[in-house]
User: Fold these one by one.
Assistant:
Number 1:
Amino acid sequence: MTAVEIAVQDLAGVRTALEEGADRIELCIALDLGGLTPSIGLVEAAVAAAAEARVTDFVHVLVRPRGGGFVYDEGELAVIERDIRAVFSAGADGVVVGAAHADGTLDETAIARFGEASDGMTVTVHRVIDAAPDTVEALRPLGGLGVTRVLSSGGAADCRAGAPVLERMRTAGAGAVQIMAGGGVRVDDIALLVAAGVDAVHLSARGRTDRGGASGPGGGAAGFDVTDRALVRAAVDAARAAQG
């Protein structure tokens, strides 16, 4: 069964994903920056919403302290570990993490540290893997580091272009590490990705609203992203249809 994961940035998005049948969420903020760590208050609210809906293994939290690349100094690594522990205490089901060296190879030592800090939560490695020199080779050691799944476009600009590599990653993972397709995923792409054998598809299903009023001088752009209910429903329906 190919799961559907929706990246959401607020409690309304959490509830939309629950109501429309998504299998899980990646909870974050600032998707325009590629996603950053959400507040603990939002994590707690998401966990409570999932519990109320009696849905398990639903809240997976992105832990990323800043925008830009994934080469972190020791202070940043320590913050990530602290955030992972805080997310665990808030009741999340999993974390989404990653770190790299300057040459693009995965920082396996850091990823192992994140796994230890997760204290049994599911660990997903995010699209840092797509910056690696060889995406398939980068995947191979992750199962031994306690990683459950990776989020990847197959090293391509989007999953459509990366589908052949995603299929190779699925073979290389040999069931030890799940492959979740993410990066420019459209509803029309889901059948192709299911056929490539991925374990899950990931999309943000974003719309835009002007609700909330003007931000005022120096306050930034008006409006904000929202989770589009129709897109979530269409993605879930497409994944189910592609699997017969």
Number 2:
Amino acid sequence: MGRTTEPDFDFVLSQRQAFDETKTGVKGLIDAGVKSVPTLFRHQPEKYEKASNLGDTRHVIPVIDLADIGKDPSKRQGLVGIVKEASQTWGFFQVVNHQIPLSVLEEMKNGVKRFHELDTQVKKEFYSRDRSKCFLYNSNFDLYGSQPALNWRDSFRCRLYPDIKPEEIPLVCRDILLDYKEHMMKLGSLLLELFSEALDLNPNYLKDMGCSEGLFCHCHYYPACPEPNLTMGITNHSDNDFFTLLLQDHIGGLQVRYQDNWIDIIPVPGAFVVNIGDFLQFISNDIFKSAEHRVVANNVGPRISVACFFYPSEEASLQIRGPIKELLSEDNPPKYREITFADYEAYHLVKGLDGTSTLAHYRI
């Protein structure tokens, strides 16, 4: 949020505070009958060029079929090669035949929708910006951060592992979140093996580093927007975790930056989108790429998405880390200074979604 003059800054801050204090988010604006995008949510359209791959089959992120991966060593080796190429070039891929029932995926999306469409007074009880809570709901986690305009979405955030507190999770989505956690931990463990092998490391290397000891689920609700060309579902950013597993519905809107172009990630029924996070790029010394991505606003909706972020545990986040020693050489010296994940995350949260890379701050 650029500080131009003191009155301008104070006026914008007061508007944001007023929006925050409603505790009803973007959905509250729609429920109140807004017909245009409020000033707080208006972005500069010229900054957000359109996707460039419409009808272009050459620019489609890889889709990886996990069927029989545990039965056929040659197939697994082939998939490791695809994961490596996708992680080095796109930073994104999709996985299918992951053994998670479609009924679970549908119920997860339905559970997110049920929560966000709860009675307003009931939902307000969960509204918070206290990130120590197991479950919290709000709109724009960096509402008071540095972004020039707010994003057109509401979210709830739930810690799924470790130290999950079922009693703090709303009943409308409690059972499915507890079930979903088991599936995410299993699939996340498999993906970490593939990432490790793609880096020519022992299959358990990244797991033993603690790359899946913390799991947070962010469940987003993007209401239909009356003027989608004036705002964004979420502005361009990269994730600050090791990697992310995303379940998106059929509406679409997710885009990734690839070769300086924005590319639509077309929803594949039953698939998960997998993307490399900043900290996996960091420890791989830039072998893997944490790609910028964004979500454009739609005039249809609500769009539902469920993002599971894999982090180190609270204890592991205090350990000093640098690029993995086994990946370094004279020709490939460390590109980042050593830091703790806790310090990195704190800087990321203060910086907010301002369109710049958090990693750049730590580059040597």
Number 3:
Amino acid sequence: MSSQLDWRRVHDFWFPVDLSRSGIAAHWEMMAWWLHGGVQAELPPFAPLVHAARSGQLDHWRATPPGRLSLIIVLDQFPRSLFAGTPQAYSSDQDALGMAEEGFGNGHYDDLTSPYEKFFYLLPLVHAEGPDHGVRMKRVVAIAERALDEAPAALKPVWLFSLNQARTRFDIISRFGRFPHRNPVLGRPSTPQELTYLAKDDFVHTRSLPTSASSAISAIG
């Protein structure tokens, strides 16, 4: 794992197809693979990379924009599937956030060309709990609004869905200052308000993808 090109293994796995000329059905298919478990069965061989990233062995990936993005994916996305239901799922969130913030400062985020690369680059700002979480979420919502404005008309339902997810997460952080669904996993007591929220069993990260453009638009509602 010492090669400067090691990050390509992750990047090619996470972005296996070029969606730039694809219709909306292909975009929904990839979103489902990324966000709703399709990726989980293929992740176990990547587990050693998570441990290597957490110990700093992959820090050289930060030298290039796609390398940094690949490291962010290893620290932010891979643990959520590999260690689901355990504290390890969230234990590298702060490391991923630091990598992302550094890349905002040195231009790596701006150098990414794919909207999906930028989407996954932003997720540590969404996922990492902390005192500045609300400020970060507000920033993510603003970026998602711009992404929607810039999206081709045929693909706007995809980015409407993304914007709705960002706005919902912003609302949760504004209300609770954290993600209450993590409380049982992390051994945190829930407040009465959080218990009411948890009882509804309607969590943004488990919501189904829209089945049509009209339902994506109505979800913004």
Number 4:
Amino acid sequence: MNPLEHQLDYPFGDTLVEPAATLEVAPGIYWVRMPLPFALDHINLWLLRDEIDGRQGWTVIDCGIASDVIRGHWESIFDTRLQGLPVLRTLVTHCHPDHLGLADWICNGGARERWKVRLWISLGDYMLGRVMAAGDGSNAGGEGAARHFARHGVTDPEALEKLRNRKDYYSNLVPSMPSQYRRLREGDKVTIGAHEWRIVTGYGHSPEHCALFSESAGVLISGDMVLPRISTNVSVFDIEPEGDPLALYLESLGRYESMPADTLVLPSHGRPFRGLHTRIEQLRTHHDARLAEVREACARSPQSAADIVPIMFRRQLDIHQMTFAMGEALAHLHLLWHAGELVRIQGADGVMRFRL
């Protein structure tokens, strides 16, 4: 546990839910934990007891990546953990593969097609998911990503070739998308079981991330917007190469600051915790420190995003981690550039660099 985690309260201690098991964390709200084949090796998913149009059942919140292992865990949950009741809807916080990957499969009732239900998601994340699943976007891989990162200082031919070879990264993890969906928007009220949940949209991590807050339950399902141990990845990718996602993310954090201090936060990664206000302040402090490092580096000499990566990330990175590190370094540079603190210049080598 890092020092910042000691400032938070973990009501379930060191408990971690085994795959295919569930743990009730509040009345009618169950924690599911699925593996991921990355350095970030798990995702938390949520099952909520529900009733729609007089039918008893469940709402699934987030789905895991498409893999036979996770499909198998879900099949076990469907058979043993739902009290003989069906899933009534699938709600996805945002379009990243670990959240959206199996949404279509779950909406269609799993391997045995037990039910057919609607996907609930924001417009922005539904549309980007459709584009990426169809192979029409790149972001974390493909030729577009390689060109984008080369423009920002990645010169290693092996790294660039690995990026090009990741062209099917997203579509392998999200192989299909529902052809219809129900739109979630900021401020929408969704009744799930005994509680009303308010949709809280956030920006910067994804196009239109939807967290859910229930005042009556005292619970925030925060998705990836507020995590207890790591900072949310905020990246500039090739699909929006001049974006300013970090400014959007920091602004979005303000939407959680009015929630009660004792709110139980159910994050997508890490353990459920209390200490929402403390964690928001920690995240703001973290980004202030990274921005200070970027300013200092750019004051010494013009810096590309590739130059900034080892300043912000002082460890060895694999190609998966490198894509997010590059995107995040560029997000910090872009915040200062859009704010007028930095000037962007393109060198004779075609690389974009930033200076005071």
